[in-house]
Design a protein that fits this description.
- Helices cover 39% and strands 23% of the residues.
- By secondary structure, the chain is of the alpha+beta class.
- Among the domains are: 5-67, no CATH class; 171-336 and 424-460, Transposase Inhibitor Protein From Tn5, Chain A, domain 1; 350-416, no CATH class.
- The strands form four sheets. Strands 7, 8, 9, 10, 11, 12, 13, 14, 17 and 18 form a ten-stranded mixed sheet that branches.
């Protein structure tokens, strides 16, 4: 049972804030007068959660003792120890990956005795596809743990642990993790970003920004640098939601340099395209491969110069991507000292898609406009992209829309460029090499899909900046582990003639969760059944077999003796 105390009766300073299934207790510790807004802004800290079965009491957190030091908090009663049936398969694989990457040793040096809890939280995020501290005890009850003594901690203890993770520890980890890389090796770093909604608490970095899911919550921006050569995440950044990607890039480049990455190139999407960023990379001697954005007229000129010279010639066909491509040299900016390499591509599939999109936009605009015939005086300009309006009584007070004339010149101009796209590189290479390297950034995009879709990390349901920073740190480590699971399964699939549908991370973990150990009459745990053929195939990707599972089961049982 969790510790509980009475909710303080400090009228005017205690606020209850409902968030999902929980109601949080907030304490107003100060008020700051904002001159521009001409009113006071309360400064609040979350001090705990209301007990669901007793609205007069609360479960206190670490902040409670800061503001109410004289209130005695009862000793925490221990949770039930654990289930008589433990799901150990996914745990065994995650433990193997963790040890192979030496994450356990690294985190022990940095976090100390509770580094096992840190790794258990990462494993919980991967297996349960959840990041809520309140649900962790359920996971811990049903799984072996890397925590010392396999102790099952309550969500309040987990919350206190998260608050105790310092910025220095996060920095130490990133430095230690990147020290292990071979900095003499030429690598390409894929850099990409996303953002996380913040729906609870007082988070300093949560600001109105450009949420990529279209929702209107405050956001924290989150980016990852990924070594596509060795297929491993290198480091992450989190920064205020109002900071746009294009301006953050130079900070990231400085971080890469400080971590020893000087012999490298960067693979970037169009969101990072700017004259300032490109010149910055030039000055620092970084190569780049980037999708072109913001130079529409230049790219169109290149397309017009080279139209019908490569789109139907087999020697220009790039089979892995089913596109046709050529490379031409040109200046990207007027003040460029030398030429860049423009890799121009044509895709018939992209042509069909873009043609369909244009046709859809035209028809959508037509339908919307025709509904306003005889009524509209003011028309949404977006609808007039492809049409010239015809008015009755034009220019008069009673002017209304009565007809439309298609802007064939505008439509034809757009159709001319359907199916084309352009990648620019600082270094001379073939069109095939450029698109092959650029497409490898799919790995970093998959990381974000892992993070948001498969680890339930699209939203940060936390109450403080410290919690948010700690969660993002754990998420990154979880992402490193899950990425290794992903690449190991991918490599193993390449050795198998058939392509089994269980050799992806989600399906593999689901299968591994079926490997269970049960508590016998003597208190010891043993395997409930032999490892199946499917499970053996998955285990092989990690250098494991049925004997490995048997040894791990024995180790777990011994660790749990008397527990």
């Amino acid at each position: 049972m969790k510790q509980t105390v009475e909710i303080p009766k400090d009228t005017g300073k205690i606020t209850l804030k409902k968030q999902g299934d929980c109601t949080y207790v907030e304490y107003t510790y100060d008020r700051v007068y904002k001159v521009d807004k001409k009113y006071n802004i309360p400064k609040r800290k979350t001090i705990g959660k209301v007990c669901p079965d007793n609205p007069a009491r609360m479960h206190p957190n670490k902040n409670f003792s800061v503001f109410f030091p004289d209130t005695e908090i009862p000793e925490e009663e221990h949770e039930p120890k654990r289930s008589g049936c433990l799901r150990m398969g996914s745990f065994a694989v995650i433990k193997r990956v963790t040890e192979g990457l030496q994450l356990d040793k690294m985190l022990e040096k940095i976090i100390g005795k509770k580094s096992g809890l840190f790794l258990d939280l990462a494993a919980y995020t991967i297996v349960s596809e959840d990041n809520s501290a309140q649900h962790y005890p359920d996971y811990a009850y049903n799984h072996p743990l890397m925590t010392e003594g396999m102790q099952v901690y309550s969500d309040s203890t987990v919350g206190d642990f998260l608050k105790g993770i310092s910025v220095d520890q996060r920095i130490q980890f990133i430095n230690a993790w990147n020290e292990k890389r071979d900095h003499s090796e030429k690598i390409y770093i894929s850099y990409d970003s996303t953002n996380k909604d913040v729906q609870a608490g007082d988070i300093e970095e949560a600001e109105p920004g450009h949420a990529k899911d279209g929702k209107n919550f405050p956001v924290i921006n989150y980016s990852i640098a990924y070594d596509r050569t060795n297929r491993i995440p290198l480091f992450y950044e989190d920064y205020p939601g109002s900071v746009v990607d294009v301006t953050q890039l130079q900070c990231m480049l400085e971080k890469a340099k400080s971590l020893g990455y000087t012999n490298c190139g960067f693979i970037l999407d169009r969101g990072y395209f700017s004259k300032g960023n490109i010149h910055y990379m030039d000055r620092n001697g970084y190569e780049f491969i980037m999708m072109v954005k913001g130079r529409k007229s230049l790219v169109r000129q290149i397309i017009d110069k080279n139209r019908k010279t490569f789109e139907d010639k087999w020697e220009n066909h790039i089979r892995p991507f089913n596109v046709y491509g050529i490379t031409v040299e040109d200046k990207l900016f007027d003040d460029d000292t030398g030429n860049r390499y423009f890799h121009l591509y044509f895709s018939s599939a992209k042509y069909a898609q873009e043609l369909s999109e244009i046709e859809h936009r035209i028809e959508k605009a037509r339908i919307a406009l025709e509904k306003t015939f005889g009524k509209a005086k003011d028309i949404d300009p977006d609808y007039l992209r492809y049409f010239s309006p015809v008015y009755d009584n034009e220019g008069q007070e009673d002017q209304v829309l009565s007809g439309l004339e298609e802007r064939a010149d505008v439509i034809n101009d757009e159709l001319k460029y359907c199916g084309y796209f352009c990648i620019v590189t600082s270094k001379e290479m073939s069109a095939k090499d450029a698109i092959t390297i650029y497409k490898s950034r799919d790995a970093s995009e998959k990381l974000f899909r892992m993070d948001k879709s498969f680890m339930d990390n699209a939203t940060l349901g936390v109450q403080s900046s410290e919690d948010a920073e700690a969660k993002i740190f754990i998420e990154f480590v979880a992402l490193v582990i899950r990425n290794k699971i992903y690449t190991s399964l991918l490599d193993e699939v390449g050795k198998i003639e058939t392509r089994p549908n269980y050799m992806n991370v989600t399906a593999a973990i689901s299968e591994l969760e079926k490997i269970e150990i049960i508590r016998m009459g003597n208190g010891c745990y043993s395997l409930d059944h032999d490892v199946t053929k499917t499970e053996k195939t998955i285990l092989k990707a990690f250098g494991m077999d049925a004997a490995s599972i048997q040894r791990e089961a024995s180790r777990i049982s011994k660790a749990l003796e008397g527990n």
